[in-house]
Amino acid sequence: MPxxxxxxVPFEGECGPFNAITDVAGVEVGHTTLIDxxxxxxxxxxxxRTGVTAVLPRGKQFDPVMAGWYALNGNGExxxxxxxxxxxxxxxxxxxxNTHSVGAVHEATIAWSYEQNFYSPxxxxxxxxxxxxxxxxxxMLNDINGFHVKRExxxxxxNNAKSGPVPEGCVGGGTGxxxxxxxGGIGTASxxxxxxxxxxxxxxxxxxxxxxxxxxxxxxxxVGKMIPxxxxxxxxxxxxxxxxxxxxxxxxxxxxLPHQLKRLARRVPLGIARVGGMGADSSGDIFIAFSTANxxxxxxxxxxxxxxxxxxxxxxxxxxxxxxxxxxxxxxLTAAETMVGINNNTVHAIPHDRLQAIFQ
Length: 360
Fold this sequence. Notes:
6-stranded mixed β-sheet
């Protein structure tokens, strides 16, 4: 499916070659997508419209990255963030799934790390792990109480993670998600920014499952008001009918310390706001940012010397985060396809022809 730029939607800033979080060297992304069954909801059987997404900061090697996180509205979950806050490092992959599969994904990520010797040789004697797992709610389309995400699906997402182009839309953890009344899901984008005559990359990946149609803005145009039809068709009240959430992962190769990465995460809501997000009461808006610079900084037992960009020079990185977040959300919309889920509930994809007409 085309990215929004390919449909003629204009954006601020220069993107990387893949216009994805994987434009940050070393970052890998993998998905497992689960789609099965049709018709009425039978808890435990389906229909199934869900999955899991994995973001590996340095691929399948253990070298913790400096990180910071921020929650605009906390009606959601991202495990492991208390240790990120305390230590300043992200030590695991970032996993994203549906609300009721957080426990299964958390356990399976620990199992994968153990079986793959991911933390070797750091924890050769005593093994422990606090994985980062974020979630958004897909119970309008998916049998969320059927717990269909299993260990093998988590292992597959991690093992298949790779650099390069990232599948978007109805994939991985984003399979059953809804965004601004259209089919949403996974989206990604990147920006190349210049700080002190040196280029750095900002990459963003979102799982977009939030927002009302009337507030949808795309590149300054009130698209939600221009396309007021094609609203979700909910034939039977789904379990836990509520506003959704958004999880955002920000990656950069710029040398930033944890407090600076938290500042980056705090700029994510500005990108969401450009698309019309309001941080609704029932929305879990949770963001994590990490830097792949300063390799080896988390080594134990010796003095570490690290680099950092001065705070006074951070504004281009803030701007890149805002613009990449905005575009990643819109890419999630344009990549998604119309989906029929439980009880024949139907969520329509944003119509490409009408979107193109707006910007022509």
